[in-house]
Automatic annotation (TrEMBL):
<dbReference type="InterPro" id="IPR011051">
    <property type="entry name" value="RmlC_Cupin_sf"/>
</dbReference>
<dbReference type="InterPro" id="IPR000888">
    <property type="entry name" value="RmlC-like"/>
</dbReference>
<protein>
    <submittedName>
        <fullName>dTDP-4-dehydrorhamnose 3,5-epimerase</fullName>
    </submittedName>
</protein>
<dbReference type="Pfam" id="PF00908">
    <property type="entry name" value="dTDP_sugar_isom"/>
</dbReference>
<comment type="similarity">
    <text>Belongs to the dTDP-4-dehydrorhamnose 3,5-epimerase family.</text>
</comment>
<dbReference type="InterPro" id="IPR014710">
    <property type="entry name" value="RmlC-like_jellyroll"/>
</dbReference>
């Protein structure tokens, strides 16, 4: 299992080693100890989610209040998606920037996003199936979104996604600037303090 820190601090691409033979393939797609060695603490997993999307579906940009927010470990178990991590932490050196990882059922990569980061993806195939391990259960009053078509963020969706399909919830979400002006976004200082508390064993 190889870890590569993305251009957005506190997010990683994870590439598992696959063992194939004439029966099929075996791999470890999540190892708490190897992740802990990278980020400084193990994940206190609270919920597992799965979504299935048509080609062109965009989900996100989603995030949750700190604390406790939601760290996410995401992989695609069928098909392919381009997964985005967006830095929405006000004051971060990479605020407003993003990075992406191709998640598919060939390389079977994963992506880890720390609490306070924005998450989105676009489905590149029909029946693209994404599974998430998360550190907090869903709480509607603490969940928020930013419009994934916000020109300030300028996510780049590949041509192979075809016609984009978004929910009204996502297209009605505020822009990054609107979310910042309303005080909706986490700050860099809040996020770093929370990560430090996790590294010290607190929650």
């Amino acid at each position: 299992m190889q870890f590569r820190e993305l251009s957005i601090p506190d997010s990683y691409e994870i590439t598992p080693k696959q063992f194939g033979d004439d029966r099929g393939v075996f791999l470890e797609w999540y190892r708490f100890d190897k992740l802990e060695a990278e980020i400084g603490h193990s994940l206190d997993l609270a919920q597992a989610n799965t979504s299935v999307s048509k080609k062109g579906v965009v989900r996100g940009i989603h995030f949750a209040d700190i604390p406790p927010s939601q760290a996410k470990y995401v992989t695609a178990t069928h098909g392919a998606v381009l997964d985005f991590v967006v830095d929405i932490r006000v004051g971060s050196p990479t605020y407003g920037q993003w990075d992406s990882v191709l998640l598919d059922d060939v390389d079977r990569r994963g992506i880890y996003l720390a609490e306070g980061l924005g998450h989105a993806f676009v489905a590149l195939t029909d029946d693209a199936t994404v599974s998430y391990l998360v550190t907090s259960t869903f709480a509607a009053e603490r969940e928020h979104g930013i419009n994934p078509l916000d020109p300030e963020i300028e996510l780049r969706f590949p041509d192979e996604a075809g016609n984009l399909l978004l929910s009204p919830k996502d297209t009605d979400a505020p822009s990054l600037a609107e979310a910042a002006a309303s005080g909706l976004l986490p700050t860099w200082d809040e996020a770093k303090a929370f990560y430090a508390s996790l590294n010290e064993g607190g929650r």
